[in-house]
């Protein structure tokens, strides 16, 4: 099969969407299929990338790390014909995703969309009319979904959410997979050696983009409660990642008197992130806007139990009381669960084993094979429908 992926997020930008695209692309290649990426251009470089087509783009005014593509190309449809594309998979309902949808309609190709993001929960990046913008965003997302042959969701919680918003087309659950074995081979000493952490400190790890939607302010305040409740247990909060809230979060850290207890690593390579998981005692995740919470799956693969806020897709990633804890959006409740696992090594050990075992459900190979089957069925159904339409009346 030949698949065209249209996305508003792609490397060098880092996000869960990008990781999902890359993971499934690798698995589909391993199964013998070709995947072509249509994505924004970053910088002025025009060097060729195999099977990647870039669009002229401009930095977002509210997030300079993120580029917004200009969805114009006079050669695009001819390119898709030349590549003999069988199906278009959009990973955004805006800009390049909409362009891909237009191409699917004009070329008579099946259209799949993955609902990666709760777009209506990200209107804080817009400076004005947020309430109106949220309503308009929901409307646009629902309309886009209903143009597709199928919508993929990483968790059923998100499937139910968009169904209630008005999505009427078929919805299928397909989480982003994880290279489980890779996350089991990290160096548990790397994090301490790299950043000079003391051997006795238990690392509370957060991995993610430092944006407002990740709710890291909440995590910092909850961590201060942990220190107050268990001053005898040496801990360090490690925040892995970069983003527009970094300066603000450093100021919050200082105002809470946590400068000596919180480590900002900045962005790290994917392999170094694996090492960070290996050196962690707990994974702490305060986000309330996740459609899946891929980093929780990565932590589980590394044998790191999680304490997370019980919201949207995250609630399907943690078996409460088995491989981690889900808490209400309350600092005290969040901190209490952390302290509970810090003070109970035996319970922590049981959760470590359970996390590793349950992470196998997210095997990238298994989920890549499932996506292959979804594509194949859609292409076959689309081909059969076109043949029926061409069949003469009474034939």
Give short descriptive properties of this protein.
six-stranded parallel beta sheet; seven-stranded parallel beta sheet; Rossmann fold; 15 strands; 2 domains
CATH C-level name of the largest domain: Alpha Beta
Low-confidence stretches: none
Strand order, sheet with most strands: 3-2-1-6-7-8-9
Cα separation of the termini: 30 Å
- Tell me the number of structural domains: 2
Mean pLDDT: 93
What would you give as the CATH superfamily of the largest domain? Glycogen Phosphorylase B
Beta fraction: 15-25%
Tell me the Rg in angstroms. 22 Å
What do you see in this structure?
42% of the residues lie in helices and 17% in strands. It has 14 helices and 15 strands. The chain has helices spanning 16-30, 76-82, 95-107, 130-145, 156-165, 180-183, 190-195, 216-229, 246-255, 270-278, 294-301, 331-343, 345-358, 364-390, and strands spanning 2-6, 34-40, 52-55, 57-59, 67-69, 87-90, 111-114, 150-153, 171-173, 202-207, 235-240, 262-266, 282-285, 306-309, 324-327. A hairpin with a 7-residue loop joins β4 (57-59) and β5 (67-69).
